[in-house]
Request: fold
Amino acid sequence: MEHPLILAIESSCDDTSAAVLAGRKVMSNVIASQLSHRLYGGVVPEVASREHQEKIVAVVAQALETAGVDRRQIEAVAFTRGPGLAGSLMVGTSFAKAFALARRLPLIEVNHMQAHVAAHLIDPPFPEFPFLCLTVSGGHTQIVLVHSPVSMEILGETVDDAAGEAFDKTGKLLGLPYPAGPEIDKLARQGNPVYSFPIPDMPGYQFSFSGLKTAILYFLQRQQELDPQFAEKNKADICASVQHTIIRILLKKLQLAARETGIRHIGIAGGVAANSGLRTTLQELGREQGWQVYIPQFQYCTDNAAMIGIAAYFKYLRADFVLQDVSPDARMSF
Ligand code: KG4
Ligand code: ZN
Reply:
């Protein structure tokens, strides 16, 4: 087996995940998604941290078993330090610290958003450095200039809602279950983008999605007054239109960044990168623009510990370790 054997833990939001990597190879990637938040239409932080606590031991045990690795063989422990929900991060951080302390192992902190980008380094074809990565998740929307696996720079990000939030909030307006991204993706494939919503005019590489949410709300209110069945009858077309608008907002800035930096190696990452519309539209745009496009496998787009493990692997090579006094950083940036 390749070395080092790294145990990676992810607990920043509502997925409890553990992975074992042998060198760069993912030996296991166990993800326990919390479904209880569906009852509330969004993640309830207190519920999330309690569920992490209940599940983490079993999730780690399963990751070790699937990998065929004994816990005594593990050579380093990696964990998400932030950004994320403070209580949730605390569970993964404490677990990783305790594991490392008990076995006297090096401890590696990982930035969750950098790990989403690092998901590109799990399976070939690997992007050439430097590359641009559009990272789109439930809490963040960033254009990242990736110099190397351990050196990244945020060129621009959202000033309000994230792209994933735009999906989730639209879903709430339409009465779809949380998280609504995958459901909107599915419905959008059955509809057409017949309704138009404004594309915000933001400076540089900044994004804004709160105006879109308001535009959708007013649009639905107006239409429902005329026909109370409007949303129900036109769900697929509404989803296709909203998704189309979100994709246009995202790709407009990505195109600007590619043009201004001259970089032609382009990737997407994060939960929204699982969106089928975004994936195909980016491929088409890439062909048209002469870009080399990189899209991680579905399982490495939404939150998972394998991406934490691969980010940690490159830090391990540089002996970039942290001490036991490390604590979670809910607003961690880079
Ligand atoms: O990266 P992620 O799993 O967690 C965070 O770090 O936030 O991203 C979750 C977000 C949610 O907003 C979810 O609705 C969205 O990713 N998402 C999608 C799809 N799958 C997940 N959005 C659009 N289409 C999808 N297929
Ligand atoms: Zn994430």
About this structure: The longest helix spans residues 235-261. Residues 274 and 298 are 6 Å apart (CA to CA). The chain has a mean pLDDT of 97.
